[in-house]
């Protein structure tokens, strides 16, 4: 039942395009930006969360709240989190939920889409993405980051 509800939610998002945000042409094929601030997707009564999940989410929210104070004290702090696990365990959903709780857009980048067969183009794609994202306050999710570390033989 949960999967069916999520499927219908995603299909309605794709049909309406209301939650997706416009991006510059140079990054449209490499990144998705989504407004999750008013999302109905986060009825967490239907999801199983561990105490560790709740601790992680709470930590991210608290460090975001003190970011400005740290900056005033001259302390540079980038609020970051490394999620790992098998496909389908909820890493992307947790990133969306954190963006929802922070009231920030959710930016999703699959490194698999940045790989290009032209020499040097992969590096240029990565540089373009990070130059663009630096100007946007958002929760940034880097997925399939292992795709750029493959052997070149």
How would you explain this protein's 3D organization?
- By secondary structure, the protein is mostly helical.
- It is 40% helix and 9% strand.
- The protein has five helices and three strands, in the order αβαααβαβ.
- The protein has helices at 2-16, 51-65, 67-72, 91-102, 121-133; strands spanning 31-34, 106-110, 139-143.
- It has a three-stranded mixed β-sheet with strand order 1-2-3.
- The N and C termini lie far apart (45 Å).
- The mean pLDDT is 78.
Mean pLDDT: 78
Provide the spatial order of strands within the biggest beta sheet: 1-2-3
What is the strand tally?
Answer: 3
SS-derived structural category: mainly alpha
Tally the helices: what do you get? 5
Strand content: 5-15%
Give the fraction of residues assigned to helices.
25-40%
Categorize the overall geometry: globular
List keywords for this structure.
153 residues; 40% helix; single chain; three-stranded mixed sheet; globular; mainly alpha; 5 helices
In short:
The protein contains 5 helices and 3 strands.
Write the layout of secondary structure elements.
Blueprint: H1 2-16, E1 31-34, H2 51-65, H3 67-72, H4 91-102, E2 106-110, H5 121-133, E3 139-143
Helix pairs in contact: 2-4
